[in-house]
Design a protein that fits this description.
Helix content: 25-40%
Number of helices: 10
CATH class: Alpha Beta
Structural class: alpha/beta
Radius of gyration: 19 Å
Number of domains: 1
Distance between the termini: 31 Å
CATH superfamily: Metal-dependent hydrolases
Order of helices and strands: EHEEEHEEHHEEHHHEEEHEHEH
Number of strands: 13
CATH architecture: Alpha-Beta Barrel
Largest sheet: 7 strands, mixed
C-alpha cells in the first residue's frame, strides 16, 4: 500500500541519499500527491537551480504535479534517543532558526569526532579525518565533507563497511546500547524546540513517538514513562503527532505492528492534539544496498486527510 502523502522524508542535506530534486522526481514516479522534505537540524531548501536560474522549490515540485511541504526535524533531548520534533510552516529564514542550526552543527561535529576516537580505543578503528571527512562516493570519486555536514549515519556506514556490524542499522543499535559509545551531543530540549517553532510561525509535530523508550532514565536517576514524557510535550503546546510510521524498519524495540501503534496513538491523543500526520522517514537507503529499505509513501496519510490539516503544514 502506498499513501498519497508522505510527510517525513530526507535528502542529502542531512542523512538521505536523494538530492531534493531527485526526491521530488522519485515521489512523482511513486504516485504521490504530496511529499515533505524534513531534514535533520537544517533548514529545507527553498530554491533549486534550473536552466541557470533560481526557482522556488515548491514551484519546481508543482511542475511534477506534486505539492511540496517544507519542514525541519529537530533532534531533541541530550539524554533521550530519538526524540524528534518536526517543525512545519515555519519562517525558515528566521535568524532565530539560523542560530539553532549553527549551534546544532557545532555540537554534532564535536560529538562525532569523539565517537570515532572511542571506537578506535575499543578496537574498532575509524579515522575521522580520512574515513569520515574524506570519503569515496558511489562512483569511486574521492570527496570531502565539511565537519558540519557529518551525520552519525556516516560513521555507522563505515562501521558496517569495515565489518564491525552487519549493517549500518545494527551499527546504530550497537552504539546506542553501549554507554561508552553513546556519546551525547548537546541537543535542544523538546520544549525549547516547540517554543522556537512557534516563534517562527510554525506548527510542532512529534515524530515517531514509539521510538522513545518505554521507560526513560536520566543521569540524575529520574524515571519517566513514554506516556508521561509525551504528556509533558502535549501540555507544552505540541500541535500534532506522527501516528502512521515505519516502525518495522527502524530500531523500534517493541513488538507492536505499525498499524497497532497508529491505532494506539490516535486513541490516546485524539482531542489532545490538533492533528495527526504520517510518513515513511524515507532516506533512499536502497542506494546503499539496504536489504529492507523504506520507500516513499510506505506510510503517510491520504489526500483527504492532508486537505483537512493542510493549513497547519503549509505556509503561503
Amino acid at each position: 500500500m502506498r499513501y498519497d502523502c508522505d510527510l517525513h522524508c530526507h535528502t542529502v542535506r542531512s542523512d538521505g541519499y536523494d538530492t531534493p530534486e531527485e526526491l521530488i522526481i522519485n515521489a512523482k514516479e511513486a504516485g504521490l500527491k504530496v511529499v515533505a522534505i524534513t531534514d535533520h537540524d537544517i533548514q529545507p531548501p527553498l530554491y533549486v537551480e534550473t536552466d541557470g536560474e533560481k526557482l522556488d522549490i515548491r514551484l519546481y515540485a508543482k511542475k511534477y504535479g506534486l505539492e511540496l511541504v517544507l519542514g525541519y526535524e529537530f533532534s531533541c533531548d541530550t539524554y533521550v534517543d530519538d526524540v524528534h520534533i518536526l517543525g512545519y510552516k515555519m519562517d525558515f529564514e528566521s535568524p532565530l532558526l539560523q542560530e539553532e542550526v549553527e549551534r546544532a552543527k557545532r555540537s554534532k561535529s564535536d560529538a562525532y569526532r569523539e565517537l570515532c576516537e572511542i571506537l578506535t580505543s575499543k578496537g574498532m578503528p575509524i579515522d575521522y579525518e580520512n574515513e569520515i571527512l574524506r570519503y569515496t562516493d558511489e562512483e569511486g570519486n574521492v570527496r570531502y565533507r565539511d565537519p558540519d555536514e557529518v551525520q552519525r549515519k556516516h560513521i555507522f556506514e563505515v562501521m558496517a563497511k569495515k565489518g564491525y556490524a552487519p549493517t549500518w542499522q545494527e551499527a546504530k543499535i550497537l552504539v546506542r546500547d553501549d554507554p561508552e559509545l553513546n556519546v551525547r551531543r548537546k541537543k535542544i530540549s523538546p520544549f525549547d524546540a516547540i517554543d522556537l517553532i512557534k516563534a517562527c510561525g510554525g506548527t510542532a509535530v512529534l515524530a515517531h513517538p514509539f521510538l522513545i523508550d518505554e521507560v526513560i532514565t536520566y543521569p540524575d536517576g529520574r524515571n519517566l514513562t513514554r506516556k508521561e514524557y509525551i504528556d509533558r510535550l502535549v501540555k507544552h503546546g505540541l500541535d500534532g503527532i506522527e501516528a502512521c510510521y515505519t516502525y518495522s524498519k527502524t530500531s523500534y524495540k517493541g513488538s507492536l505492528s505499525d498499524d497497532e501503534i497508529e491505532r494506539i496513538v490516535k486513541e490516546e491523543y485524539k482531542g489532545r492534539v490538533k492533528f495527526f500526520t504520517g510518513g515513511s522517514d524515507y532516506h533512499a537507503d536502497h542506494k546503499k544496498g539496504v536489504e529492507n529499505p523504506r520507500y516513499l509513501g510506505e506510510r503517510g496519510i491520504s489526500l483527504r486527510e492532508f486537505e483537512e490539516i493542510r493549513d497547519y503544514l503549509v505556509g503561503e
